[in-house]
Amino acid sequence: KAGVTQTPRYLIKTRGQQVTLSCSPISGHRSVSWYQQTPGQGLQFLFEYFSETQRNKGNFPGRFSGRQFSNSRSEMNVSTLELGDSALYLCASKSFSAQGDRTGELFFGEGSRLTVL
Amino acid sequence: AQSVTQLDSHVSVSEGTPVLLRCNYSSSYSPSLFWYVQHPNKGLQLLLKYTSAATLVKGINGFEAEFKKSETSFHLTKPSAHMSDAAEYFCVVRAMNYGGSQGNLIFGKGTKLSVKP
């Protein structure tokens, strides 16, 4: 079974540009979450999608947005890039067990490393 | 509100000696707790999880953690470190949404484990 696939793995942008990152979850997983990882702030939750609907949202400005498609693939977009947006962006997918959310394990991709110059 | 504190940012051990990575949590509810590991330039992998079953949780690669409610701790241990254990380890608590539904994961700042030959 293929794991969580994130593209691109590395990218460099300049301030003011926008970027779109893609995440393909494990086959059969309908929940996709996004996290930002930086040396200073650590891992911070961005948002979670389930069946094309945003279920949870972290404390990030509106420049950060996401969406999920009917095949569960997800994209996140960051507009008007700032230097501080340089980070590793991690996507994670989850299936739902019979017990519900509580035991659902998150499977992470290897991340997209964004550098903003 | 839920939170998690990893007490050491860096732990260094010799190969073959025990590993102890400390984690304290804060939660108003019976928490779900996890330990994840991240090797360099890789995504996160679940080591183990506590979801109100047995208080001593066994994970992969010989790791285990004990949930101690009285001490609000969930320390990660391994009897004998291996060179391949060198990585960053994250203690994680699952947030609870208003109304009691399961929320997103809240990550600790991470503990970098170094293993000396």
Please outline the helices and strands.
The complex is a heterodimer of chains A (117) and B (117).
Chain A (H helix, E strand, L loop, with lengths): L4 E3 L2 E4 L5 E6 L6 E8 L3 E9 L2 E5 L6 E5 L5 E5 L8 E8 L12 E2 L3 E5 L1
Parallel strand pairs in A: 2-11
Antiparallel strand pairs in A: 1-3, 3-8, 4-5, 4-9, 5-6, 7-8, 9-10, 9-11
Chain B lengths: L2 E4 L3 E5 L4 E3 L1 E4 L6 E6 L5 E7 L5 E3 L5 E5 L4 E6 L8 E10 L5 E6 L3 E6 L1
Parallel strand pairs in B: 2-12
Antiparallel strand pairs in B: 1-4, 3-9, 5-6, 5-10, 7-8, 8-9, 10-11, 10-12
Keywords summarizing the entry:
heterodimer, A: 117 residues, mainly beta, seven-stranded mixed sheet, 11 strands, 51% strand, globular, B: mainly beta, six-stranded mixed sheet, 0% helix
Describe the structure.
The complex is a heterodimer of chains A (117) and B (117). Chain A has 117 residues and is mostly beta strands. Chain A has no helices and 11 strands. In chain A, the strands form 2 sheets. In chain A, strands 2, 4, 5, 6, 9, 10 and 11 form a 7-stranded mixed beta sheet that branches. Chain A has a 4-stranded antiparallel beta sheet with strand order 1-3-8-7, with no helix packed on it. The model of chain A is unreliable at 98-102 (pLDDT under 50). Chain B is an all-beta fold and 117 residues long. Chain B contains no helices and 12 strands. In chain B, strand 7 and strand 8 (64-68) form a beta hairpin. Chain B is globular and about 50 Å long. The mean pLDDT of chain B is 90. The A-B interface holds A 4, 33, 35, 42-45, 48, 56, 58, 90, 92, 100-103, 105-111 and B 32, 36, 41-46, 49, 51, 90, 94, 97, 101-110.
